[in-house]
Design goal:
The protein has 104 residues and is mainly β. The chain has one helix and seven strands; from the N terminus they run H-E-E-E-E-E-E-E. It has one domain.
Length: 104
């Protein structure tokens, strides 16, 4: 694994913000996701920029990248956890994440 990939993976494990406040929505079914819910997130990767493309709750999780996926992306699984940003505003972060698939 290259140094850039290792840095990205470490960033996933540190708790990247998923949403402001104490809830987020599943992009598949619209279900409200709360702290401690398991999620699967499709992450667009371009250079050193990491951007969440889709957040799926347990009911819509697929467990793998579709075989026809061509863009550089990662599929990450983890749990939602509460945190605070640098201004002490409440936010949800991805916690205990692991990369379960990638195209780069």
């Amino acid at each position: 694994m290259t140094e850039t990939l290792e840095c990205r993976e470490r960033a996933m494990l540190r708790g990247i913000p998923v949403g402001v406040g104490q809830t987020a929505l599943c992009d598949g079914c619209g279900r409200t996701l709360r702290p401690n819910d398991r999620v699967e997130i499709l992450v667009d990767v371009e250079g050193t920029v990491i951007d969440f493309a889709t957040t799926r709750g347990p009911c819509c999780a697929r467990g793998e990248l579709p075989s026809e996926t061509t863009r550089d992306c990662w599929l990450v699984s983890g749990r939602l956890a509460t945190s605070h940003d640098h201004k002490m505003r409440s936010e949800l972060v991805l916690s205990g994440a692991s990369v379960i698939g990638r195209t780069d």
